[in-house]
Automatic annotation (TrEMBL):
<feature type="binding site">
    <location>
        <position position="319"/>
    </location>
    <ligand>
        <name>substrate</name>
    </ligand>
</feature>
<feature type="binding site">
    <location>
        <position position="215"/>
    </location>
    <ligand>
        <name>Mg(2+) 5</name>
    </ligand>
</feature>
<feature type="binding site">
    <location>
        <position position="75"/>
    </location>
    <ligand>
        <name>Mg(2+) 2</name>
    </ligand>
</feature>
<feature type="binding site">
    <location>
        <position position="54"/>
    </location>
    <ligand>
        <name>substrate</name>
    </ligand>
</feature>
<feature type="binding site">
    <location>
        <position position="263"/>
    </location>
    <ligand>
        <name>substrate</name>
    </ligand>
</feature>
<feature type="binding site">
    <location>
        <position position="30"/>
    </location>
    <ligand>
        <name>Mg(2+) 4</name>
    </ligand>
</feature>
<keyword id="KW-0460">Magnesium</keyword>
<dbReference type="Pfam" id="PF00586">
    <property type="entry name" value="AIRS"/>
</dbReference>
<keyword id="KW-0547">Nucleotide-binding</keyword>
<keyword id="KW-0418">Kinase</keyword>
<keyword id="KW-0067">ATP-binding</keyword>
<dbReference type="GO" id="GO:0005524">
    <property type="term" value="F:ATP binding"/>
</dbReference>
<feature type="binding site">
    <location>
        <position position="47"/>
    </location>
    <ligand>
        <name>Mg(2+) 2</name>
    </ligand>
</feature>
<keyword id="KW-0784">Thiamine biosynthesis</keyword>
<feature type="domain" description="PurM-like C-terminal">
    <location>
        <begin position="150"/>
        <end position="302"/>
    </location>
</feature>
<comment type="pathway">
    <text>Cofactor biosynthesis; thiamine diphosphate biosynthesis; thiamine diphosphate from thiamine phosphate: step 1/1.</text>
</comment>
<feature type="binding site">
    <location>
        <position position="122"/>
    </location>
    <ligand>
        <name>Mg(2+) 1</name>
    </ligand>
</feature>
């Protein structure tokens, strides 16, 4: 069946979702209209995903739908915002109704899971590319900015690092010897990373700064340091590396992956000593899982990777940017 632009919108994107009391007008007019509750700040983020650059040509539409939402929610998580609304601009080379059906079904399933309403978008013809924008609310005025790290802050990372990279690696190396359950788990971590939304909302109450790890710890923590005009010492042996990686891969691989690959969509945050009790109580109540990896220092000291309290040279021990052909 052939669809025109309007039929694509009405068949695949204008779906009934739960009534949202702040939404005055959703899909179907020239703009969407939202009422922002009093004493809230609106957080807005957008990320384009282009075929060949951000995802493989043959990606399953289900996985693309997931990634489209997850990468945007992760940015909101890093600000401590609660995601509420989304717009979706989609450009497709042709109308493939099976593909659209699968994409939109998964898309709405995930949106509903996070109680997010799709409020508009744009539909065009061209090389496959997807631009979601997400809108979230932050109660009060306390936000989690990259620029607020302070000398003496402790640096933490949620979850584990490097598992997404391992999953990516396993997708290329079909014959790599590894337990099938672990293989599938790691691939899922690559295809379906969990944006740390609830963790971000908690951290907003006591962390000083945060960023989501999309490009790798070195690069993303580097942004906090640049914005905050600080340095940092991080300890290689304290990186949160799971048994899945330790038991199945070489040290060099998983350290490289943890430091440089990214796409784990975990949060890296800094917190002052005086707030550690609050963090520990959140950890105890299983509201957040995170690991201490180092300290914020002076800008003059710079960004250092340490092993047993001694500075180590990144390059000397063979760390370099991720390249699947190196393995
Ligand atoms: P206009 O020409 O005024 O920009 P469009 O014809 O592009 O309007 O879109 C009509 C309505 O459908 C608008 O409310 C728009 O936000 C919505 N829309 C268009 N494409 C999508 C999409 N892919 N997903 C969700 N809503 C969409
Ligand atoms: Mg339009």
């Amino acid at each position: 069946m052939k669809y025109n632009e309007f039929e694509i919108i009405s068949n695949f994107f204008n779906k009934h979702q739960k009534i949202d009391k702040n939404l005055i007008k959703g899909i179907g007019d020239d703009t969407a209209l939202i009422k922002i509750p009093k004493k809230n700040v609106l957080a807005i983020s957008t990320d384009t995903l282009v075929e060949g650059t951000h995802f493989f040509k043959n990606i399953h539409p289900k996985n693309l739908a997931y990634k489209t939402i997850a990468v945007n929610l992760s940015d909101l998580a890093a600000m401590g915002a609660l995601p509420k609304w989304m717009t979706l601009s989609i450009t497709m080379p042709k109308v493939d109704s099976e593909w659209l059906k699968c994409f939109s079904q998964s898309f709405f399933q995930i949106l509903n899971q996070y109680k997010i309403t799709l409020i508009g978008g744009d539909t065009n013809c061209g090389p496959l590319s997807i631009t979601p924008s997400v809108y979230g609310l932050i109660k009060g005025s306390k936000t989690l900015l990259r620029k607020n790290a302070k000398e003496g802050d402790l640096i933490y990372v949620t979850g584990y690092l490097g598992e997404s990279a391992a999953g990516f690696f396993l997708l290329q190396k079909k014959k790599y010897p590894i337990n099938i359950k672990v293989r599938n788990y790691l691939i899922r971590k690559h295809l379906n990373p969990t944006p740390r939304v609830s963790e971000g909302i908690i951290l907003r109450n006591f962390a000083n700064s945060a960023i989501d790890i999309s490009d790798g710890l070195i690069s993303d923590l580097g942004h906090i340091l640049e914005e905050s005009q600080c340095g940092a010492d991080i300890e290689l042996n304290k990186l949160p590396i799971s048994k899945n990686l330790i038991n199945n891969f070489k040290k060099n691989n998983y350290f490289n992956w943890s430091l440089y690959f990214g796409e784990d969509y975990e949060l890296c945050f800094t917190i002052s000593k005086k707030n550690i009790k609050k963090l520990n109580s959140a950890i105890k109540n299983k509201l957040i899982q995170c690991k201490h990896i180092g300290y914020i220092t002076s800008k003059k000291r710079g960004f250092n990777l340490m092993q047993n309290k001694k500075k180590i040279n990144f390059k000397k021990i063979g760390f370099n940017h991720f390249d699947v052909n190196n393995f």
